[in-house]
């Protein structure tokens, strides 16, 4: 009658004694392992974030703090002067607005075009399909630098088959510096990393069961309407994340921006020219020969960098899931 | 009899027209790509290939090209003092770095696949470089002259780095040599490697999440150790993603803006206006890249058989 209840809780020590020390060993092992893992991950995370933290601390320092050996992380003379100067040199507000507009427009165009193309590759059978898809892969692989010199001249003397000359326009148009060429390229999937977006969107559409469309077709829905009404709403998450990628990469891109948008003040271009402008400002306006000290220049540059990436970090904090989960969702496979 | 025949031919006709209608809509969907590819890829590609055999001169009316044969290629490979050196250096760096990136991203993906507190946060941080280390920021990020300059100013006396110290000690004992050199450069480039492996981590992670728990449980019942089930289950299941990551890593490396060769090509074009010469250099670079990707694809697809 006084046999123990079947599920009577036992103390850890009793359990351990019963197992002959195995339990304790296991517990300790897993504790050591998770400690090691935590340290490793913390170290690597710190490695990634450290330059940003460093820039933040430097950007609030006065110049004299840079030479003060006792100042390491926390600024002694807290100041916003660096931000004011960087703002002035970057033409921050105007460049920010330009960048937002250009990035928004370009990435909307790119994703719209890539969605159409990705859907076409995923769902339709047509002659030469394999060949065209090979071209998409080629598009991913070809460095844009290979064709940059030709594109540059192409838009410098823009004239499709001599049409402009034929109409009596005289010399060829100089489209360089306007946003038109890049918008044109974006609308035809030739922007930054567009092959990748086509690939991702196609993989996603491949994973959608065909029966969805067949049901729509049976109900008398046309091809384009099916795409618009039935397929597109389901694909919204992947499209949003491709859009985010496109937006962010466009934001930091200098290659296409310098090539085509030379006259539009964009943050990335302004930032890459910041060092030069700063040197001029120091030598000419402040009258210090040699452009000031290296440390001071770097301080202003890192302040400028922070100002350029701040909107991106805010975007990332809010839309983090959209970035990370897209790649898993599309299930990239060769 | 005749009725069935006409019916059959009618239905075949219908099916045919359905099929061709689908083909037409397919072409309509990919039309933007075709137009763009022909106008902004094929045409400039051929054009730049032609330019690479020419001396290109610019004038307000347009450009004139004089055919000079292989001179630009000869100049790039034999006369130019920098190009060869840069090319070999970049390729060496590419090989060591992409191997390191693959290993590191795989290990990090394994770690991030386990359950622990703050996992989402850690994932978010590892992915951050994909966004921040691109375009203009690459050049500024990797060029850590700020830190170098500051360090010099702040700590003139205390200029001792851990890895440097280890290195001198190990070098003096005479162990390793060449291998050690590679290891130490990798340690010093750890930042670059971690920064460049954001996408790869996510790709591996998504692969790891598709592996069912039941496989591991079965292996556990059969008495496999963790090590064995890693090599027997995890590695084969993930290997189809290896190719994706290898190709992505190589392409990513070659297109980075802080790449020396890219910088030189850009400089020749924008500053020196040597369009022919820069085209020739970029063609050499492009062909080498394609060849390398081809070789890697061949080796990996031979050595790895995917379980699907």
What is the overall shape of chain B? globular
Strand order of the largest sheet of chain B: 1-2
User: Can you summarize the main beta sheet of chain A?
Assistant: none
- Strand segment tally of chain B: 2
H-E string of chain B: HEEHHHHHHHHHHHHH
Level of helix content of chain A?
over 70%
Tell me the radius of gyration of chain B. Answer: 27 Å
The whole-angstrom Rg of chain A is 29 Å
* Corresponding CATH architecture of chain A: Orthogonal Bundle
Overall pLDDT of chain B, averaged?
Answer: 77
Taken from the alpha-carbon principal axes, the silhouette of chain A is flat
Task: Please describe what this structure looks like.
The complex is a heterodimer of chains A (334) and B (308). Chain A is mainly α and 334 residues long. Chain A has one domain: Orthogonal Bundle (MetI-like fold), CATH 1.10.3720. Chain A is built from 16 helices and no strands. Chain A has helices spanning 12-19, 22-59, 63-67, 81-90, 92-123, 129-141, 144-156, 163-166, 180-187, 194-207, 211-218, 223-252, 255-260, 267-272, 274-285, 294-330. In chain A, helix 2 crosses helix 16 (294-330) and helix 11 (211-218) crosses helix 12 (223-252). The longest helix of chain A is centred in the first third of the chain and has 38 residues, at 22-59. The radius of gyration of chain A is 29 Å and the shape is flat. Residues 161-170 of chain A have low confidence and may be disordered. Chain B has 308 residues and is mostly helical. Chain B has a domain at 96-266. In chain B, 79% of the residues lie in helices and 4% in strands. Chain B has helices at residues 2-51, 71-79, 83-113, 119-132, 136-142, 145-154, 162-173, 178-188, 190-195, 198-210, 213-221, 226-255, 260-270, 275-303; strands at 54-59, 62-67. Chain B has a two-stranded antiparallel sheet with strand order 1-2. In chain B, helix 4 (119-132) packs across helix 10 and helix 12 packs antiparallel against helix 14 (275-303). The longest helix of chain B is centred in the first third of the chain and has 50 residues, at 2-51. Chain B is globular and about 75 Å long. At the A-B interface, helix 2, helix 5, helix 6, helix 7 and helix 12 of A face helix 1, helix 3, helix 4, helix 5 and helix 6 of B.
């Amino acid at each position: 009658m006084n046999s123990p209840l079947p599920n009577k809780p036992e103390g850890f020590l009793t359990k351990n004694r019963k197992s002959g020390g195995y339990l304790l060993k296991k517990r300790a092992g897993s504790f050591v392992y998770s400690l090691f893992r935590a340290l490793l991950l913390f170290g690597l995370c710190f490695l990634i974030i450290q330059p940003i933290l460093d820039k933040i601390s430097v950007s609030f320092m006065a110049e004299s703090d840079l030479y003060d050996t006792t100042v390491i992380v926390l600024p002694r003379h807290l100041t916003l002067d660096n931000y004011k100067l960087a703002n002035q040199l970057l033409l921050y507000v105007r460049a920010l607005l330009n960048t937002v507009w250009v990035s928004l427009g370009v990435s909307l165009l790119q994703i719209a075009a890539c969605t159409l193309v990705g859907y076409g590759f995923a769902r339709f059978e047509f002659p030469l399909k394999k060949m065209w898809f090979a071209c998409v892969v080629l598009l991913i692989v070809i460095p844009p630098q290979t064709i940059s010199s030709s594109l540059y001249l192409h838009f410098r003397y823009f004239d499709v088959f001599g049409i402009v000359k034929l109409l009596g326009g005289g010399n060829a148009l100089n489209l360089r510096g306007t946003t038109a060429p890049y918008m044109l390229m974006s609308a035809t999937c030739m922007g930054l990393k567009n092959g990748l977006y086509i690939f991702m969107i196609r993989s996603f559409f491949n994973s959608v069961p065909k029966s969805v469309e067949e049901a729509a077709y049976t109900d008398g829905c046309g091809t384009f309407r099916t795409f618009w009404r039935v397929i597109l709403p389901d694909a919204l998450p992947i499209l949003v994340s491709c859009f985010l990628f496109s937006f962010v990469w466009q934001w930091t891109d200098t290659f296409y921006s310098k090539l085509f948008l030379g006259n539009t003040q964009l943050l990335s271009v302004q930032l890459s020219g910041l060092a030069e402008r700063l040197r001029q400002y120091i030598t000419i306006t402040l009258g210090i020969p040699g452009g000031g000290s290296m440390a001071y220049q770097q301080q202003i540059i890192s302040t400028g960098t922070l100002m350029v990436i701040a909107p991106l970090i805010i975007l990332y904090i809010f839309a983090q899931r959209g970035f990370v989960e897209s790649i898993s969702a599309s299930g990239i496979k060769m | 009899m005749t009725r069935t025949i006409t019916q059959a031919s009618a239905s075949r006709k219908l099916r045919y027209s359905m099929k061709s209608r689908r083909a037409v809509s397919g072409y309509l969907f990919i039309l933007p790509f075709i137009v763009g590819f022909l106008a902004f890829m094929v045409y400039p590609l051929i054009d730049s290939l032609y330019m690479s055999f020419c001396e290109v001169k610019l004038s307000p009316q347009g450009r004139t090209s004089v055919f000079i044969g292989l001179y630009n290629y000869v100049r790039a490979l034999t006369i130019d003092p920098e190009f060869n050196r840069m090319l070999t250096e970049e390729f060496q760096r590419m090989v060591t770095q992409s191997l390191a990136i693959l290993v590191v991203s795989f290990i990090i993906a394994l770690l991030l696949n386990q359950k622990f507190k703050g996992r989402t946060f850690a994932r978010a941080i590892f992915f951050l470089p994909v966004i921040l280390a691109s375009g203009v920021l690459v050049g500024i990020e990797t060029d850590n002259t700020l830190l170098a300059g500051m360090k010099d100013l702040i700590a003139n006396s205390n200029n001792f780095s851990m890895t440097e110290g280890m290195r001198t000690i190990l070098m003096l004992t005479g162990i390793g040599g060449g291998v050690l050199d590679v290891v130490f450069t990798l340690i010093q480039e750890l930042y670059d490697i971690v920064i460049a492996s954001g996408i790869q981590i996510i790709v591996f992670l998504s692969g790891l999440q598709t592996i069912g728990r039941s496989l591991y449980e079965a292996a556990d019942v059969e008495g496999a150790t963790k090590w064995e089930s890693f090599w027997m289950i995890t590695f084969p299941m993930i290997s189809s993603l290896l190719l994706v990551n290898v190709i992505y890593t190589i392409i990513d490396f070659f297109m980075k803006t802080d790449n020396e060769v890219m910088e030189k090509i850009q400089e020749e074009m924008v500053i020196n206006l040597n369009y022919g010469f820069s085209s020739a250099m970029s063609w050499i670079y492009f062909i080498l890249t394609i060849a390398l990707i081809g070789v890697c694809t061949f080796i990996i697809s031979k050595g790895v058989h995917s379980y699907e």
